[in-house]
């Protein structure tokens, strides 16, 4: 029987008559959502800004096998992300530290970008990308855990969806800005832009007040207000007693419990079919999404003669719709359940992975690429909400644990994807068609475990229940 904690309002101890300025808004789940979303956007911008730039830069340096070399650079980033995730997740959950790791992650990200900008050789570029991955892992693991800490349980899907839209923003801004700045200022231009955005992100993280600290000043941002009428909730003042929160800071840990070891966390997650399926789909998403990245600039150049600037513009047109897919998917996850949302997104994405193979008009490619990304990226926010629910059901497993595992799954996918995509494009006669069809097949297979295992009540269970009711009614 899954462990569920008894909802109890956190103990509130006001430590001083002078709380931090702006305590309520700095600790609120809306501000936390904004900062976490900004962090995700910054991470993806730093990751993707070199996609239209690096092939041309490596070519100007005299390298050959450009698609494969670009794929290895993307691999280096994901390798750093995967290798650093486990210690970050375990330490964050053990000491319940969120804000400090986020700040450290930004400092690492700044240093790695400077190294990439001044790299004298390809090997140093790879080292810089590994460090970028380490900084990014703190954004994903600790940022998502911080958001779940501060958000009422009933709104987690929606808030995660809004924060995950930062993924689309980063991918939308990174490639076109990178291409345009490369054309105008050369190789350093895009990286300087990434440094500026990273510094702005750092300022946002310095303002955050964690929930565990806000509680000490008598403010609980995760206290649910749904039991109160809207007019009462909106007009209640500082003297209004906060209703009970649906989860505590680390709701899945009983009082005085010892933190689980890494092995115990892994064992408990592996025993949960919901967790395993969520990780498999996350890995698949990372693989198919990143498999196109090293090949798209070369494909557009070969078929339609695009330069780096025009490649960037294609990314804008294709990624804009995904700004809406994550918030919408998160919203419908709260309303319909994660099972329906993930199944529909996967199903509706499949035809468009085939349409992008067509080498006709570029307008058709852009539209198909946009719809493909809209539905494929729509699976991520429901999966993060699914993992939050899994965390609350398993005794001793915290948000940082499940998002650490999520980060590893995504990192493995994005490590393998660019290598597979780059090698297929370079060595197969119809490499672009082959990698798109491979992605179609893998996503199609993911529909099966989604149908049986995703959600508090899977689609299979719901269908079986409805059929039983129908049979009973007919009798």
Automatic annotation (TrEMBL):
What membrane topology term does the record carry?
Multi-pass membrane protein
Major facilitator superfamily (MFS) profile domain ranges (all copies): 32-458
Q: Where is this region: Disordered?
A: 236-258
Statement: the UniProt record of this protein carries the keyword Magnesium: no
Q: Name one GO molecular function term.
A: transmembrane transporter activity
InterPro entries named among the record's database cross-references: MFS, MFS_dom, MFS_trans_sf, MFS_Vesicular_Transporter
Mainly resides where?
A: membrane
What are the transmembrane regions? Answer: 29-51, 71-92, 99-116, 122-148, 160-181, 187-208, 311-332, 339-358, 364-385, 397-420, 432-454
Q: Where does the protein end up?
A: Membrane
Keywords recorded for this protein, A-Z: Membrane, Transmembrane, Transmembrane helix, Transport
User: Which branch of life, at top level?
Assistant: Eukaryota
Q: Which GO terms describe its cellular component?
A: membrane
Query: Does the UniProt entry include the keyword Translocase?
Result: no
What PANTHER family does this protein map onto?
A: GH10249P
Name assigned to this protein: Major facilitator superfamily domain-containing protein
